Amino acid sequence: MSGTLKKTPFHAFHTAKGAKMAPFAGYDMPIQYADGILKEHEWVRTRAGLFDVSHMGPSFLEGADAAANLARLTPSTFEKAAIGRAKYTVLTNPEGGIIDDLIVTKLAEDKFLLVLNAGRKDVDAAWIAKNISGKVTFTPPVEGTPLLALQGPYAAAALEKAVLQKQSMDDLPYMTGDWYSLFGKKCFITRTGYTGEDGFEIMLPAGDDELAIRVWDLLVNHPDVKAIGLGARDSLRLEMGYPLYGHDLDETTSPVEADIKWIISKKNDGFFGAPRVQKELNGGAARIRVGIQITDKGIAREGCTLHTRTGEEIGVLTSGGFSPTLKQAIGQGYIRPEYAKDGTEIRVDIRGKKVAAKVHGLSFVSPKTNSKPSA
Asked: Going by C-beta distance under 8 Å and a sequence separation of 6 or more, which residues neighbour residue 350?
């Protein structure tokens, strides 16, 4: 089976550094390096971490009707967005469930970059291709597109010093993207990420492994940068309350239930699943995604049930783990709305034992998307 796994352009680096590798969305990916997940996590929070995210699916929607099609595929609107604006949104199905969550960046009035999740890019591409109409062309994810994520308070300084050759990131605000020249090659960089820290996602030309490895090597050899595996990426996103598709989001869960109502445009009522979503916006959902803070001993994992102090089952945990920042167990899950208030005392069933916990906001750490110390 391992012989059938795809490899990113940085695979040789991962194995040479002794990374613990594992299958992920059809790729052989690094879960952690020698330092381990806890130290990698802390490094991203204090310095800058370099992630290989080349398993993701960059794709393009282009044409005079591209924005109109996005307004059908997602509950957001893009027609009046500024060039370079990046938006977090979701693809919805006719039942109002979430097919995938993604970042859409407006490259031109008639062209958009869609970065699809690794494990859903084939499903997403088929859905998009089937449901677009008019003057629009969809380019599905191109295999071999190198994607890097540089995250942490030192990310901007390291990026400028290592590879940007006197180009500054000062004029690139959070949730925007632009084209940059890296050693004479056109590359697209967005100030986005999945950690809660300031950071960038760098899309390099498809098939140009030589450039990709050069950029990777220059960044990872900067004194404030270390390579980070997918294990720390997961603990970092969990602290920020970011959802993970297939765990916290799925095709039965609506954007209202997932507590991402802010992506739903008041000017868009024509997207797939709009009747259910609008009904929940007006009348409330049967469950809501919340953060869970374990106040007793034990680490709760996905699938642990949530209960009142008297034992009534009221929800389920969809992600859980140890927070290196808080030094305690945290998670997120879905709970009945009457119990969703911050501070509500509950119990989590961990292997048959009811462990004390409380409802918490989704974010356990404050975002630092504007920090920029010197290298």
From this structure: 298, 299, 300, 301, 304
On the question of pLDDT at 375 being above 70, the answer is: no
In the numeric block, the tokens 């380019």 are attached to 139
pLDDT in tens, 229-263: 999 999 999 999 999 999 999 999 999 999 999 99
Least Cα distance to 174 among 253, 105, 277 occurs for: 105
Give the type of residue at 212.
A
Q: What contacts 316, CB < 8 A, 6 or more positions away?
A: 303, 304, 305, 306, 333, 334
Global pTM value: 0.96
Angle at 242 between CA 240 and CA 245, to 5 degrees: 155
Tell me how far apart the alpha carbons of residues 95 and 276 are, in angstroms, rounded to a whole number: 7
Least Cα distance to 369 among 242, 264, 260 occurs for 242
Burial of 336 (0-12, 13-18, 19+ CB in 10 A): middle
Q: Dihedral through CA 218, CA 220, CA 224, CA 226, nearest 10?
A: 180
Backbone angles phi, psi at 17, to 5 degrees: -90, 5
Distance of alpha carbon 291 from alpha carbon 332, whole angstroms = 4
205 secondary structure, DSSP code: P
Instruction: Walk me through the domains of the chain, giving residue ranges and CATH numbers.
Output: 2-54+144-238 (3.30.1360.120), 286-362 (2.40.30.110)
CA distances from 357 to 170, 241, 309, 328, 341 (A): 42, 17, 10, 11, 13
